[in-house]
Structures are given as structure tokens and as C-alpha cells.
Write a structure and sequence with these properties.
Chain lengths: ~450, ~750
Amino acid sequence: MRVLVLLSTLALALMAHASSLTGERALVLLDDVEGAHVYLELWNDLQAREYNLTLHDVSQPVALNKNGQRQFDHLLILSPKMKAYPEGMSAKAVVGFVADGGNLLVAGSPELGNTVRELSREFDVEFDNKFTTVLDHFNYDTGFGKEKHDAIVINPATHMAKLDNIIPVDKIPGPILFRGIAHSVNPSNSLLTPILWAPQEAYSWESVNLNGSADQDPVISGKDISLVSVMQARNNARIAFLGSTEMLTDPFIFEPIAKQGEKETISGNRQFIEALTKWVFHETAVLDVVGVYHNKVGEENAPAHYRIKDNMTYSIYISEYHNGEWRAFSANDVQLELIMLDPYIRKTLDESPMDKDEGIVGTFSTTVQLPDQYGVFKFTVNYKRPGLTYIESVTTVGIHPFRHDQYPRFISQAKPYYTSAASMGIGLLIFTFVYLWGGLDSSAKTTKKA
Amino acid sequence: MSAETTSTIAKVLKPTILILIAIVAISSRLFSIIRFESVIHEFDPWFNYRTTQHLVKNGFYEFWNWFDEKSWYPLGRVVGGTVYPGIMVTSALIHNILHFFNFPVDIRNICVFLAPMFSGLTAFSAYLLTKELKDSSAGLLAAAFLGVAPGYISRSVAGSYDNEGIAIFLLVFTFYLWIKAVKTGSAFFGLLTALFYFYMVSAWGGYVFITNLVPLHAFTLVLMGRFSNRLYVSYSTFYAVGTLLSMQIPFVGFQPTRTSEHMAALGVFGLLQLRGFAELIRGLVTPKQFRTLLKTGIAIVTVVSLTILTLLSMSGVVAPFTGRFYSLWDTGYAKVHIPIIASVSEHQPTAWTSFFFDLQMLIFLFPAGVYLCFKELKDEHVFIILYSVFASYFAGVMVRLMLTLTPVVCVSAAIAYSTLLDTYLEKSEHVLATTLQGGASTSAASASAIESTSASKKHGTKSTNKDTSETKPHSAAASSRNNNASEKPKRFPIFSWDSRMMVILQLTWFLFMFAWHCTYVTSGSYSSPSIVLATRGHDGSQVIIDDFREAYYWLRKNTGENTKVMSWWDYGYQMAGMANITTLVDNNTWNNTHIATVGKAMATSEDVAYKVLRQHDVDYVLVIFGGVLGYSGDDINKFLWMIRIGEGVYPNEVKEQSFFTPRGEYKVDHEATPAMKNSLMYKMSYYRFSELHGGNAVDHVRSARMPAEGPTLSVLEEAYTTEHWLVRIYKVKDLDNIGRDLKDATAFDNGKARKSSLKRK
């Protein structure tokens, strides 16, 4: 029965199949549609993954939302120069688009306008001032960055976050080439993670005025410069901020690159971008709670409520969407918490070995004895790991005290009282018999009394 | 008219009068139904109604073990173990009986009409009680008085479905049975007393009054040297059976053996056993030996019992008195130590005017009645005297306890009134006839002699029922008084027609005034359901303000039953009953910390409050705001209590002092303190209030002109405000989707972009 439910749930999910779990409609905002051909490889790649791309000039009106319906599933803002939103769009609409479950990719450049800057600020991403660029006199590419030292070469092994759920380091064959604007992230925003940052020697400075005297320190420098950051919103919409539109273009993908005094290689940009868009557009690392079951040990169905100190089995079934197919999610750190204001029990769930039929669902279960405390408890699995869909499964169940007839009826401590009560009763009986029929001459006395 | 016809007529008249009294008692309680509708009133009745529904729907077993997950979220409440089930079981029983006979009466109507129905029974028991004290005509008067006395009506109008509604009947009836038991010395009546005591225990926490008054009566009788086998039998039966039965109510449990409030009853029980034992010994030994035995015995018993009591109290086996009990002795105690008790208006000391308001002419007949009791001073009169002394004291301490005072006032007032009537209505034929009999006496003293003859006759007939040893001295004294009548001149009998008429007319006029006053008070003050308000419009027509039900109905229709709604505890029962949602705190007030947490959320800034709201999974917050309407019982006026209760548990986060201006005033306008202006309660109450009259909004409760710029809210959003702004409901926002704090998110939604955080070093 349970397996059937699980499978039918999954079947529904599979029917809606596309590369992306959330949909294939993608809107790309460009400063100039004429110049879209520089991204040819990106378009090819996305179309190969079955995306329905709409390339859109920022000067033309467009609506993200029509009659309360989201019109696109993914939004790529590759228009850093944008002075104003296209008619029908606004910062509020973009934030609303994300709140509605749409994914967002924002790329900047040194010519970044205020529109995109203010939008990013809402996501706690602060781009540096206009016309600044990330400079590095040690790690520049001898081809693109010959003059200004602004195209920098980044080693993914050392300057990329080791979050295999977002971009697995071993999939990136070469260094990443970057030319663009720096941004910093607000560390207090726990949803936001930088995944690519600048080398220690880099700094952010105005690229147009490179020869002028530097009378001030740069606003940000070294590892504080984030180049690419991602955010997974609380509703699991995914957002990426790139400091560079150029890193997405064909030249940055195909041209051989080399640092000063090193051998020429092909950049890892293509794989980096592929992995990043896959993550942002919900093609990988998407978790789904297929089912949550709990029952008393030895029973089949979930009770309406438990009693204190019951033994309970809790299972959660989690499936992972990865590159177009569902597979069993596997982890050893999924925890169950029993919370009533504070957690009363916190226990790591055991991953059950699965049989072949259920191969696409990971099973996590445990058996606990409920606390000796009645109340309304939340059985919570709060599983939030960077890159993975947040899982916050809450089952609210009451834990009741003993009923009046569930206590032990006869207890040994009370035996003296049972004895005294019984002896009293028997004594009364005997006394009554003796008094009434015992042959004592009590008639005289009783009449006197009355 | 012959004596026989009189008694035949009396036999018919008495039941007729009693039935009429019951009808009057019931119908005078129906104002609210005629004016509004058949609806449950106030706060606690809503809980009783909800539990009754549960009982009727799920049966007694489920009710007895009911764990309510929807109140006191997330702690839950063991309803079965924290409730006096008497009233619910009574209604459910009536419901089931009616349905058995195929009368499909809705349980709501049974609940609404339960208190008026029981008031008829109360009147009847007042008749029985007073009949034991004086005679049946006094009894009829007492029944009439108690039937319409506003002090009792205040808690028993139709719709006021509360414990007191049946408890007053049980109180009076238990006292009647007790007096009957003491008078007859019958174990049967002792047992009946115990049974009704059990019913009383199951119905109302005020049973403690019986638990202490009956032992006090017994103790006083022993002190007066009136120990008798009658007392011994009746008290022992009552105490043993009653205590065992009372322990069957889960809410009472082992309290009778563990708490100080119940110790007096146990002590008197022990004392009576010792006294009985001493009587037994006295019969077996010589008087001299007995005296020695008595002295040593008393010394040993005193020392031993004191030691045991001290040890038990010290070790905590016998719980010390509860706070509510202390506040009975020291009215300032609660205010200092337990603000939650002091915050309830019905726990405040009584204003002296309300004695007259609730009892009218009875209040000055009452001392006269007590005086008459002193004059007779039989066992049962001692009881009434004790009752009146203690009830008067308690009624002065707590408004609510006016309820326990009312029956004894009615009884003693009836005694006084009927004595007056007896004196002034005595038939002249009778007087003349007896004058002839006592013709030997001098003419001046003759009438008084006759008075005492008839008095002694009365005593004589009554005393045959009783233990002769008790009343013999009385009748002996009476007869000796009869013989020496000339030595003790008494008052003149009233012969003259005109002086009789004057007094009788005046008394009748008083009765009219009393009836008029009772109707006026009932109709004007005690018949408001308080969930529906009525005012007069400009043209004098009645305007019904139904904001409470409007808000609760909105909640009911727009949220699920698992929606958690936070409000101050006053509205907990109503929300659970009417809106069918989950509440955090309610009128049960069993967990001070939980209430203090709500108080803290109301009294602190948005950021602090938001953490509390999140931790408790609150979905909506409800406040009562009377500023538009001028409804003075709103949350801003109760706010100081929230602060005080919150401060009791969270002294670092809530400080009462910071809500007062430097001049010590409690202000809400532009002079309000920062703590006040930042508090969630203030913000919720006055949010968008200033927009109401174009920046000239005036708070009609506090007569304050509000600043043109009202407070802003970021962690809550307005969900619903009722027609007259009386109830305002706010939705608690979720954490921001993209990780901003809610203040920024709200500003962004209002069109304000964030400022740059980068700064040149």
C-alpha cells in the first residue's frame, strides 16, 4: 500500500518531465538583442536541454506575470547596462517572480547600471561602483587581459566553493576566466553563498582611469571579492549572481587561456556555466519528500495522537532529482526532532537499504520512545544543506497523558490500605451478625437508647 | 375561618406560590434572550459550552479523558482533569433524557436555559432552608427574595452558562440537608448532605466554602457545649462519605488530604472523634479520674497534632495555602505577588454601593434577621450566624463572592420580614381568645404573657421532634417566663388598626420597590451577553454592535482549526468556542509563564515579539481596540496587566516603569514613551488609526488626540478589522523569502529601495 502511494506520487512527477523540474520557459533580457550571438554556445547548450528561450530586448515591454500566472520559469538578466526595466516589469515584479518560484540569473559587468544594482541589493549582493572592475596583476590572462590585467584566471580547486551539489570541482577541467565587476555578499544572509571568489592579489578599481594616481584604498580586495554567488530562497527558488556577462560568451569558452609564464589551456567556463545553470534551473540537487509516515511500533497506520512514552517509528522518504531523472537520496545526517517549544528528542535517522522496486526513493527511519511529557509536538525533519533543496517537514501530533483507566489498577504499595478496607468491611459484617443474631441480650439496651 | 380550612388552603397555596416564584425567577432571567438571541454569554460559559458539546458528541469516557490540543498551544490542556464537570454532565444528562423521549432540543438551548431553570430550584431550596429556621411563610418569602435578588441573577441569567448557575442551588440545598441532618441526627440526611456536597464539588470550586463552613459550625457547637450524638453522627457521615466522593473528581484528587484549605474539616472530624471518645470514657470512670485523663489527653493530642501538622507543612506534604486563598485575607497580596489574579475584575474588592445595588432592601433586613437568629440560637441558627459573618467578609473582599452572600441575606431577611409580618398581622380574634384564657393576669401585662404562651407552645410542638435533652431547658425557661410574666414586661401587642396598616403598607411598598429594583437591575445591568453590545443611536434607536462575532466568524471561515491565534487570555475561550481555532492562552490561566510570554510578545518591540511569535507558530494576532467606539474594556486599558504579568517572568525584557511618562502618566498620544510606541500592542491598536479622520483621529476611550503619523508594522500585516474597529486581526508574516529582515522587506514593498552598504575605507 505504502509503496503504491509512493510510486503513484512519483509517476505524477515523472509525467511533468523536462530537463528542468520547474519548467522550460526562460526569458533572457539583453541590452541589445543584436549582440546576442556572442552567447551562441550558451543558447545551444540551453536549447539542447529543452529550454524554450525568449531573447528579449530591454526596450520592449514584457510581463513576468499575467493574471496571477507566472509567464516564465526562469529569468536571465544579461542586461547590465539596463537603465530602466522594460515596461511591465519592476524590481518588485522580479522579487515577486522569485517569491512565486521562478529562478533568476543575474550577470553584471563594469558598466552595471543602477537598476540591476538595486535589484541585487535586495538579495544582499552589493556590486562595486560603476566602471570598477576586478584587477589582478599576477593572475591575469595573457590574451584577454594583456593591457589592463582585468581578465583574471581562477583556479577552481582553490577559489571555488567545494559544494558538489552545486558545481562539482572535478567536473571543471580547466581554470575559469573572468572579466567583470566585483561584488560582496552580506555574511548575515544565510541563504547566500559565494561560490567563486577572486585570488588574494586581486582588487576592484576603476578600469577607465587606470593610470591615474590611486589616492584611496579599493572598496574590496582579495578574497572578499565574490565573482559568482548563489542563493536559494526559502521557497527553494534559486538565484545566481555573476560579476561578468563575458564569462558566458563564446570567446571566453573557446579561446585558449594562459597565465603569465604558464601553458595555454582551454578554460573551464563551459562546464562551470553548464553546472551553474543546471543547478539554478532546478536540474540537479532537487529533493522531494515523497512521504512521511509514523506509527506506533507494531501498528500499521498513523494514530490520531500518541500517548506519553509510546514507542514510535518514524520514516521519511526522500527522492532526489538529478540530471533529468529521479534517484534515491542518500545521506547519513538526516535528523528527526521532536519539538514542543524546545526539542525534546533529536535523533539521526537511519538510511534503510532499498530494494530494486523502490530504487528511486531513499528511506530514512528510526524508532524512538516518546518523551514523558504531554503536549502538541512537531515531528520535524529540518534538513538544510548548501545547494540542496531545503527540507522542512513538520508533522504536528499530540502526545496525550494516560487515560484514567490506563494506570495500573492495583499497586503493591497500597496493599496495607486494601487490607485495612477489607478487614473493616468484614469486621462490620461480623459485628452486624453478632449484634443482630448473636444471642447477646441487646434488646434491653437498644430500647433504652432509642 | 376554621383552622382546618386555613390549613387546607395553605396546602394548596404553598405549592402554587412556590411554582409562581419559580416562574418569576425563570422569566426575569430571560431579558437577554428577548433582547438579543439565545446565545452563550461572556467568557467562561463559552468554554463550558464547548466542553458540553464535546461531551454530548463523544460520550462521557472521551470527555473524562479529553486532552485538548487546541488550547494552550503547544502545551495542551488536560481538560478532563482540570475541569469541574458538574454543569456539563448536568446539561448532557438533560439533553440525553430529552432525546430519549424524542424531544430534539439543541444542546445550546439547554445550556442557555440551564441557569434560569436551576434558579427555580434554588428558590425552592431557600424555602426548605428557611422553613427549618423559622416557618413556611418565612420560607416562601426567602424563596421569593432569592428568586429575584440581583446578586444571584448576575450569574444566572439565560445564556450565562457557568458553574455558579447550578452551584448556588447546590450550596443552599446542601446547607438545608446539613441543618436537617444536625437537627435529626440521622445518618440518612448526613449521607444526602455528602451526596449533594459531592455534586457541589463536581460543579464549582466554591465548594471549599462548604468544606470550611460545615466544620466551623460543628466546631462552634462543640465549643458552645452542644456536642451531641446527633452532631457526631451527622458530621462523621458527612465528612467520611463526602470527602471520599469529592476525591473522585480528578481536579480535586488528593487535595482533601493535602491542602491547608481542607485541613479544618479533617481537624474537626478528629476533634469530634476525640470528644465522642471522651464521652464514652466519662461514663466508665469517676469524675476525678476523668478530669486528669482529660487534661493529659488534651495536652498530648495538641502537641502531637501540632507537631505532625508542622512537619507535614515543612516537608511539603500538606501544601501551603494557594495564592487565591491568601488574597482573601490580604486584598493587597495578589496585586503584589500574583498579578494574574489581581488582573481579573471579579477578584477586586467590592465597592460598598454594589451591596445595595445587588441586594437592595435585603441588606438592611439582613442584620435584623441575624439578630433574630441570635435570639433563638438553636443549632441551625448558629449555622446561619456563622454563614452570614463569613459570607459578609468574603463578599467584601471579592466582588465574585457576593454570590455566596446572597442566599444567606435572603434567608435572614426573610426571617426578619416574616417576623415583622407575624407581629403586625397576628389575627385579633386569636389575640382576644388567648387574652381570655390568661385573664388572671393584670391587663397591662396580659398580652405579653399571651405572646410568650404562644411562643412556648410553638416551641413545645417543635421540640417533640428533637432530642429532648437539648430543648428541655428552653421550654422550661419559657414556661417559667410564662409564670413570671408580670416580672418581665414585654412589648405591647399591636391592636390598633391604623398602626398596623401603616407598617404593613410600608412593608408592602418596600416589597414593590424591591421587585421594581430587581427587575431594573436585571434588565439594565445583568442581561448583556457582552459578546454583543447595544448602544443608542443619535435618534434614540438601538444600535447593535456585533464586532466580536464578526471577527470570530471571519476567523472561522478564513482559517483552519489548526490556525494558531494569539490574543490576551480574556478572549481565549470565546475564540476557541466561536472561531474554532487553536489558542495560546485562555481564561483557564493555569500556566502563568505561558501567559507572561504572551504578555511579553505584546509589550516588546517587533523584533523581540517576532521571535516569540515564531517559536509558538503563531499565525494570527488578535487585539481588541475600543478607541473608535469608546469601548473602555479594550486591550490598551488591559495593557498594564500584560506588562506586569510579563515583567513577573521576564524582568529583563519588560519593564513597567518604561511605559510611564516621566510624570508617571500612562499616555498613548504624542507623549507616549518609546517603549509604549514600540510595543506590538500599541502598534497593532493604532496601526492606520490616524488615517481614519484625516490625521485628526481621537482615541475616545483615553480622550487622546493621536499623532498624525501612526505606527508602522513590519512583522505583521493587517488581516481584518471589524466594522467599528473593535477587533483587529493581524497576520504574522513568514520570514522573508530572500533573507532580508522584515523591516527592509516591508520598506521595499512600499517602494523604498535599500541604501548602499559599501563605504570607502
